[in-house]
């Protein structure tokens, strides 16, 4: 099987991890027991050696998949010349099934008869580790070279063979209308000694409870009216469930992605870890969680931000962390993860003030650290940094005086002054003075009067979609001619139909840079702030047509291939209709 488009995949998950399942019944991505654990199946990024677990009809068939009600329990419908059937995939939630990590797969034959083929060839740690299968009561046990690389494929009724030199579980079987059977993929030593009868019993218990759990967790509108009301309400509601699969319950953090590598054919040397917890955008996550009614998760996420600030201090704060708050990464570290990035201080201060505005709560012990950040910004804003975007693929990124970084420094001071006012704290004169100097400097050196636009960085007149943040941070009124000019120039220069490029550069103009859906949604929000509602609605309606058949969005889109790449459920907050 060649690489499929990202839109051909659905996601299943629980509190701990998730898996990608394509419409042909193959699990092509799964890491257990946690989202950022090494992989069991990784054909999504490595077709030849990553491993997959596929259950599908033999011969010709047609298929489509969909979610059951308001859940992320996935059904794949198969139609063959001799009959039809459904394959149901889900992962039970952690509190119902202790410390074990399972994927449940159930076949129900609807009409006629269907001949099936099952192939399960796990490849631990992205295919780097040798995997060996052995017979086990009720299934096949797989071992890797490491002590924690143990998993078992349970089978309720179907006998499994071990083929391909002991690396693959395999079965061919036939089923008639009204028949059903279950398979369970379980991680860990506990799973390997977990009897097949017990596993199948859990299967029968877990289906309804898992559907019920997600239905209860999904976004529910309040009687006074829903902030997400409008024609795109269901897209927001569905995306909110994916946010849960990206939340780390052991820390409160939220992952940037569910996959580790960005998969693009032309990006052979462009490989980094993406399952990390970024500070960038943390204010938007708090706002989204609160508006969706996920108050518990919003509090947990704020506590994670607070812990990072208190533990690391102003000069130790990082743009990104591991999901458990660690500061170091493995052999494929995230893009310029340890490079100096000024904007994160603004993101943190805006998040703290946003949390206070929503919940009217503030931990007083945090104030000394926030004041320290403001003091630090008063001198650090004059330094160049690496900016908000990933480095170019040729690795030639260098520190610059990025306009958006300076604006976030201004926002850090602005929000710290605001918090000090409402909390009745002392406000040093230096904060106000530096804020005024910073504002004037940005307007002088970060604005090109001939273009009538704010620019990418001091001395670089290229356009950058990140300058849209100026509107959301109230740096200038939306009706200010400089903001209107910037918005119009971004639309003219960076637009590719309804999509937006991230920034203007030689990398962007040679058509290697994909269209960025986050920037595209953010631009629509900017139009709404300028009260250009008709234009915003039209663009949003068109952009939402690019949702996957299952109703979610990926990060990048390439018009030349009409394919999406890079996991994007955390950006559901941008779908909000006005």
Summarize the helices and strands and which ones pair or pack.
Layout: E1 9-13, E2 18-22, E3 26-31, E4 39-41, E5 51-57, E6 62-67, E7 74-79, E8 83-90, E9 101-122, E10 132-136, E11 139-143, E12 150-155, E13 161-163, E14 168-176, E15 180-187, H1 188-192, H2 196-217, H3 233-245, E16 277-278, H4 282-292, H5 295-316, E17 320-321, H6 343-359, H7 367-380, H8 403-422, H9 429-445, E18 447-448, E19 453-454, H10 469-472, H11 481-494, E20 495-496, E21 499-500, H12 506-509, E22 515-516, H13 517-529, H14 533-543, E23 554-558, E24 563-567
Antiparallel strand pairs: 1-2, 2-3, 3-4, 3-5, 5-9, 6-7, 7-8, 8-9, 9-14, 9-15, 10-11, 11-12, 12-15, 13-14, 16-17, 18-19, 20-21, 22-23, 23-24
Helix pairs in contact: 4-5, 4-6, 5-7, 6-8, 7-8, 8-9, 13-14
Care to describe what's here?
This protein is an alpha+beta fold and 578 residues long. The protein has helices spanning 188-192, 196-217, 233-245, 282-292, 295-316, 343-359, 367-380, 403-422, 429-445, 469-472, 481-494, 506-509, 517-529, 533-543, and strands at residues 9-13, 18-22, 26-31, 39-41, 51-57, 62-67, 74-79, 83-90, 101-122, 132-136, 139-143, 150-155, 161-163, 168-176, 180-187, 277-278, 320-321, 447-448, 453-454, 495-496, 499-500, 515-516, 554-558, 563-567. The chain contains 14 helices and 24 strands. The protein has a 15-stranded antiparallel β-sheet that branches. Strands 22-23-24 form a three-stranded antiparallel β-sheet. Strands 16-17 form a two-stranded antiparallel sheet. The chain is elongated and about 75 Å long.
């Amino acid at each position: 099987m060649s690489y499929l488009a990202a839109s051909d995949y659905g996601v299943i998950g629980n509190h701990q991890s998730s898996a990608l399942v394509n419409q042909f019944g193959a699990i092509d991505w799964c890491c257990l027991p946690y989202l950022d654990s090494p992989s069991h199946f990784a054909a999504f990024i490595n077709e030849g050696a990553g491993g997959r677990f596929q259950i599908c009809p033999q011969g010709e068939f047609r298929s489509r998949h969909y979610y059951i009600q308001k859940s992320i329990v996935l059904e794949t419908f198969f139609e063959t010349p001799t009959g039809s059937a459904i394959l149901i995939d889900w992962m039970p939630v952690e509190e119902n099934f202790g410390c074990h990590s399972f994927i449940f797969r159930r076949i129900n034959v609807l009409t006629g008869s269907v001949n099936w083929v099952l192939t399960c060839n796990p490849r631990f740690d992205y295919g780097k580790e040798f995997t060996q299968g052995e017979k086990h009561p009720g299934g096949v046990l797989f071992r890797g070279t490491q002590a924690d690389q143990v998993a078992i494929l349970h089978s309720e009724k179907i006998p499994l063979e071990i083929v391909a030199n002991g690396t693959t579980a395999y079965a061919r079987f036939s089923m008639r209308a009204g028949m059903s059977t279950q398979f369970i993929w379980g991680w860990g030593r506990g799973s390997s000694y977990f009897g097949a009868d017990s596993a199948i019993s859990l299967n029968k218990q877990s289906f309804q409870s898992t559907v019920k759990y997600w239905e209860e967790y999904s976004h529910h509108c309040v009687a006074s009216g829903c902030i997400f009301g409008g024609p795109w309400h269901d897209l927001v509601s569905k995306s909110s469930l994916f946010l849960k699969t990206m939340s780390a319950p052991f820390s409160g953090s939220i992952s940037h992605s569910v996959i580790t590598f960005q998969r693009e054919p032309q990006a052979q040397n462009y490989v980094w870890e993406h399952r990390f917890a970024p500070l960038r955008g943390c204010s938007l996550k708090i706002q989204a969680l609160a508006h969706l009614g996920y108050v518990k998760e919003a509090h947990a996420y704020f506590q994670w931000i607070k812990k990072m600030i208190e533990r690391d201090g102003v000069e130790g704060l990082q743009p990104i962390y591991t999901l458990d708050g660690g500061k170091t990464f493995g052999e494929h570290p995230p893009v310029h993860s340890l490079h100096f990035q000024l904007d994160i201080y603004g993101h943190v201060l805006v998040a703290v003030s946003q949390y206070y505005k929503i919940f009217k709560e503030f931990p007083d012990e945090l104030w000394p650290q926030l004041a320290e950040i403001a003091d630090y910004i008063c001198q650090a804003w004059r330094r160049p940094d690496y900016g908000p975007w990933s480095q170019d693929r040729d690795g030639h990124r260098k520190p610059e005086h990025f306009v958006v970084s300076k604006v976030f420094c201004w926002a850090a001071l602005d929000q710290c002054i605001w918090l000090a006012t409402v909390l009745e704290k002392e406000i040093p004169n230096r904060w106000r003075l530096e804020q005024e100097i910073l504002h004037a400097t940005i307007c002088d050196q970060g604005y090109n009067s001939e273009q009538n636009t704010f620019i990418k960085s001091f001395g670089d007149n290229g356009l950058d979609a990140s300058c849209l943040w100026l509107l959301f941070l109230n740096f200038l009124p939306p009706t200010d001619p400089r903001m209107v000019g910037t918005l119009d120039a971004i639309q003219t220069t960076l637009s590719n139909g309804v999509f937006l490029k991230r920034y203007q550069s030689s990398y962007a103009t040679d058509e290697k840079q994909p269209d960025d859906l986050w920037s595209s949604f953010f631009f629509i929000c900017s139009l709404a702030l300028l009260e250009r509602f008709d234009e915003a609605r039209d663009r949003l309606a068109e952009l939402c047509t690019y949702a996957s058949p299952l109703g979610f969005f990926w990060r990048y889109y390439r018009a030349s291939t009409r394919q999406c790449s890079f996991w994007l459920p955390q950006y559901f907050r941008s779908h909000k209709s006005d």
